[in-house]
Write a structure and sequence with these properties.
The protein is α/β, with parallel strands linked by helices. It has 3 helices and 10 strands. The C terminus is likely disordered.
Length: 315
């Protein structure tokens, strides 16, 4: 059985007081519904379902070649790379003579920009893990809108992740990559660093200082850098002693193009944050249909950005 989990960053005007805790949360295969919520611990972490993980020790990704019309493509690509590097070869434990070997077994390989601009997973075809921007329209509606969404397709029984895609809402929010604090609005590097956490199977943390905390406060850049809580999460999922090989090929092989015969929105359609939206996906005989579900919402603790829809720049 396969499911797709979408995690989103939502925008609201104000967020309540943060919870204090000392433990990260992992994403699991359990998806809450209106009639059957997933069991959680005292920190709100799910305690049901298989925990999500990549079986490979290295994952490849690619930016859609259009990037966003507001930012230089090469600079945008560099920021995306920094967001992935934040979670790559993370030191685990105290430094020592073998500290170079005592790192989380997770790294990333950047591919050249691709033409595909679609979040999808093809069960019987080639795939890619894509990072893309929506400049003209944002079809995913959450609480006050969303600024990014990560869709993760995984094995419903084991929790193994098959595919992950990140979409950024540049249609309604001004994302920036500047180092000038006077010009920062929604810091792209902070947003993407959070989303990469979801990409590798981490849920929202109850610690307000963590990259994976559910709230982003523009124009903060604090979430560019992992905290001890984030390090604990990646080291728990991908410990140094994990038996894993490096295989950067996506499941089914790599493709830089979207499925030319598929005009549907793909298996990653979503509904309001925190509400499940199920849809059938063809599976081999004898297995259950996959479900498309909406996961957690990350709330912005400050202002809401509402931009006018504009035409795409010439390609």
């Amino acid at each position: 059985m396969r499911r797709t989990l979408a995690t989103v960053i939502g925008i609201v005007g104000l967020l309540g007081a943060a919870r204090d805790a000392s433990a990260f949360c992992r994403s699991t295969t359990c998806r809450s519904s209106g009639t059957k919520p997933c069991a959680v611990d005292e920190n709100g972490c799910p305690t049901e379902g298989a925990k999500l993980f990549w079986s490979s020790s290295c994952i490849s990704y690619a930016m859609n070649e259009l990037g966003t019309q507001d930012l230089d493509p090469s600079e945008t690509r560099a920021v995306i790379k920094k967001a992935f590097q934040a979670w790559s070869d993370v030191p685990c434990g105290a430094p020592g003579k073998d500290s170079a070997l005592n790192v989380a077994t997770m790294t990333f390989q950047e591919r050249e920009p691709v033409s595909c601009k679609k979040s999808e997973y093809r069960k019987d075809g080639r795939n890619l893990n894509v990072i893309l921007f929506q400049d003209d329209d944002w079809k995913y509606r959450g609480i006050g809108g969303t600024i990014a969404k990560t869709s993760v397709t995984y094995n419903d029984e084991t929790g193994e992740i098959y595919d992950a895609d990140i979409e950024v809402n540049a249609a309604n929010n001004t994302v920036t990559i500047t180092e000038d604090p006077r010009k920062i609005e929604y810091d792209l590097r902070s947003i993407l660093t959070h989303e990469v956490g979801h990409f590798i199977g981490i849920a929202h943390s109850p610690q307000s200082s963590a990259v994976m905390f559910e709230s982003y406060s523009p124009p903060s850049t604090a979430q560019r850098k992992l905290t001890a809580d984030d390090v604990a999460a990646v080291c728990a999922i991908y410990p140094p002693n994990r038996s894993a090989v490096c295989n950067v090929e996506p499941r089914g092989g790599f493709s830089a193009t979207c499925n030319p015969n598929d005009s549907s929105p793909g298996p990653c359609a979503v509904a309001t944050a925190g509400v499940g939206a199920a849809g059938a996906v063809n599976e081999p005989a004898g297995t259950s249909a996959a479900l498309v579900m909406v996961g957690l919402g990350l709330l912005a603790a400050a202002r809401v950005s509402c931009r006018t829809k504009r035409s795409r720049r010439p390609s």
